[in-house]
């Protein structure tokens, strides 16, 4: 089996802007339509950036439904994670019924999980899947640390077609070692996608097949340019285009990509204030001012 | 305001045994009735041991309802934590409607939370409360690390009457320093309850007012004996009674109190196999054998 093109290139992770009443549907539809029009390779709604962990079943199903309507021909992936396997299976069922092309699954945890428990989750879910699955490795939010051995075990399960990994090291040689070491244990049809937007050029140049991108949900064009340059083997251009966004990478390192993405979208008028789920708060005044300065420095019109 | 007796002494945290279909209601009712009959000072359902994080709104409301019916005159506290403030407020509403005497709130997190976000959660929830609240400080599951300053800020909020803290140091002097340091910032009416059952005698002897206990949900009598000895100032007896349960404390240190409590209850015939929410798994064969040996060593009949 060859790698699916759906799990290569640039995947954009839009925010799910929220209001007190639920999803800000018009704003969400605009975000999805914007990235689809830009020509990204896939759209993943309900990622961490899409606040999946905070949404109930009905809200999640609605988000997938809206995304399907707005994405045109661009494949839509949907995050389906939950603390309990039972709920993951419900979200999978809903995503499939809405027509999602694939699902993204992070092993959320409350009680810390052992490797056999994480494997058991993926085993139970893939046994009930009719679309491909992306394994979502995000220790900052799930507190699950994947070893390469655990990735290799899970990647053998039917339907697993990609792994979304945390940022690779900035050093090109170390990044290559990281990606090759993981890839050595994977079947050939499983792609590796990098996350941590500031590390994306490094990841793609080190051999990652995809970039699972937070900021592409808001600024798809510069992310597409980086992706196309890197996958064409034009390392200098990819690095230089990534350097152009350095003020953004610095903000994300300082405040986290979730809150920064929300503030950028707000600054650009794409979403309203108060779009994150309490108790999570948006950036404070200083943070917002730093975002505005960064956008100005990068000549991204507010 | 003087400390409430509801937040002193021994609080038992029963498991919420689960089946594929939902809560094992007869088993849960038996667990609650057993600890009530033993004469514990309060019963806290839907703590971490009570699997609150894995249950939906209807299951949680049902658990409180069942507990109220089985607890007799013993006050019932209910865990109300959720990742989103909106959902916490719903659980609070349900717990109050069912007649719970208080609520227990841990700041669950997916996106890591800052101190202002944690404070904001407690601020929003206490503004909507008609019963007292216990602040639940459990970094292993929530990944929120409370400073004493944060505790002091939250303890000023109306309705906050107790704090459930992680294990104190085993060394008596260090334990006293820990408890006094926290207490120095708290209003006089806010009690401190220790958790981590192996550290309970040390915590009570170091000045904690309460023991929020996992194992008292299954073995209330020996826990009551430890609590009564410690609060009567009989340090040697309290330590010696705690030492009698050392095999259990060792198992909890090795496998975690949640999975050990489930296995002990299963060994004693109080709950059925498979009572934890997937992806969490019960102890494997070796773990179960160790539990059986420990119970035998402690002369607790299986």
TrEMBL record, chains A, B:
Enzyme Commission number(s) from the entry: 4.3.3.7
One Gene Ontology MF term: 4-hydroxy-tetrahydrodipicolinate synthase activity
Top-level lineage group: Bacteria
Keywords in alphabetical order: Lyase
Pfam families, per the entry: DHDPS (PF00701)
Lyase is among the record's keywords: yes
Family matches, as InterPro entries: Aldolase_TIM, DapA-like
Signal sequence residues: none
PANTHER family: 4-HYDROXY-2-OXOGLUTARATE ALDOLASE, MITOCHONDRIAL (PTHR12128:SF66), DIHYDRODIPICOLINATE SYNTHASE (PTHR12128)
Protein family membership: Belongs to the DapA family.
Protein name per Swiss-Prot or TrEMBL: 4-hydroxy-tetrahydrodipicolinate synthase
Species per Swiss-Prot/TrEMBL record: Paeniglutamicibacter psychrophenolicus
